[in-house]
UniProtKB/TrEMBL annotation:
Its EC number is 2.7.1.50. Pathway: Cofactor biosynthesis; thiamine diphosphate biosynthesis; 4-methyl-5-(2-phosphoethyl)-thiazole from 5-(2-hydroxyethyl)-4-methylthiazole: step 1/1. Gene3D superfamilies: 3.40.1190.20. Catalyzes the phosphorylation of the hydroxyl group of 4-methyl-5-beta-hydroxyethylthiazole (THZ). The keyword Ribonucleoprotein does not apply. Substrate binds at M49, G204. It comes from Agrilactobacillus yilanensis. Pfam families: HK (PF02110). ATP binds at K124, T177. Its cofactor is Mg(2+). The lineage of its organism: Bacteria, Bacillati, Bacillota, Bacilli, Lactobacillales. This is Hydroxyethylthiazole kinase.
Length: 279
């Protein structure tokens, strides 16, 4: 059966969404920086990883969008994320804020609040991180989401919490990732259902999603469609990797194959496999 989401966005999805190669400025964590850069390259975007504020003014003149990721903070990175976000606000450059490990420390929560107050176009994290953002109890551990934040009741609670935030900030699209992905703007809420459990078992999948969303903002998609396209494309790459793999599929092989698919599936009608529904 055709997903209502595919139906709604069919005309857009059938254009070549990957055609333009946006230059994407990323300030992200050292753990997964290479995965994010390659995921962008594999999908016909151009990454530049740059976190020295002395060059921001020049870099901002060249880039299409900005990715800010809280994964691995330091005093310098803290400053640099704030400076970049303020510049983005001043130049109205689309920005994705990735709230990695939000429940782990007060430092992350304070920084995230400051960044969001200044500016944001897409604000994302895993389901547990987004529960923390909404002031709901969160069962995340470190940078990973917790299973009890992924039940139907918890998803409904998070959707309501994000709707409250979106009413106050109608320009922002909020995304919580997990087995089901919750997407909320001031007038639209939906749950996306693609992906496989293996995607939670190698590091950086959330960071890759953040980078990909940024690239679609840089291609001029609205925040909502950039989120739908990036999450669904990556998750369908994961589903395809499992279907292609010999069982038992080791996680290093799964990682290799999902990354291969990032470069390959865009030539195919991947979007017909989108699963999800409006809420
Ligand atoms: N159990 C699952 N089933 C299906 N898809 C999943 C599952 N877990 C994660 N995903 C998908 O994997 C991607 C990353 O989501 P996840 O919530 O794991 O991010 P994250 O915890 O921020 O990742 P990381 O911190 O490792 O960068 C999303 O596209 C999400 O839909
Ligand atoms: C493991 C880890 N620690 C901080 S960031 C990161 C990568 C997942 O975002
Ligand atoms: Mg995860």
């Amino acid at each position: 059966m055709m997903s209502p989401i595919f139906k709604q966005y069919q005309t857009l999805l059938q254009t070549d969404l990957f055609e333009y190669a946006p230059l994407v400025h990323c300030i992200t964590n050292e753990i997964t920086i290479e995965s994010v850069a390659n995921a962008l390259l594999y999908t016909n975007a151009k990454p530049i990883m740059a976190d020295d504020p002395r060059e921001f003014e020049e870099i901002f003149q060249q880039t299409d969008a900005l990715f800010l990721n809280l994964g691995n903070l330091s005093a310098d990175r803290d400053q640099c994320l704030s400076i970049a976000n303020r510049l983005a606000q001043q130049t109205q450059k689309p920005v994705v804020l990735d709230l990695v490990g939000l429940a782990a420390s007060k430092l992350r929560r304070t920084l995230a609040q400051d960044l969001i107050e200044t500016y944001g176009v897409v604000v994302k994290g895993n389901l547990s991180e987004m529960r923390t953002l909404c002031g709901l109890t969160s069962n995340g551990r470190g940078v990973d989401g917790g299973a009890s934040d992924q039940t139907e009741a918890a998803l409904t609670e998070l959707t309501k919490g994000l709707q409250d935030l979106a009413r106050k900030r109608p320009e922002i699209c909020f995304l919580g990732t997990g087995p089901t992905d919750v997407v909320v703007t001031h007038d639209t809420s939906l749950w996306l259902k693609n992906g496989v459990p293996e995607m939670d078992q190698f590091t950086g999948t959330g960071d890759i999603v953040g980078g990909l969303i940024t690239s679609f903002l840089g291609r001029g998609l609205t925040p909502l469609t950039a989120v739908i396209v990036a999450v669904s494309y990556f998750n369908i790459c994961g589903e395809t990797a499992v279907a292609q793999g010999r069982q038992p599929l080791g996680l290093a092989d799964f990682r290799q194959q999902i990354l291969n698919n990032l470069s390959l599936l865009k030539q195919e009608q991947w979007y017909e496999k989108i699963k999800g529904a409006f809420k």
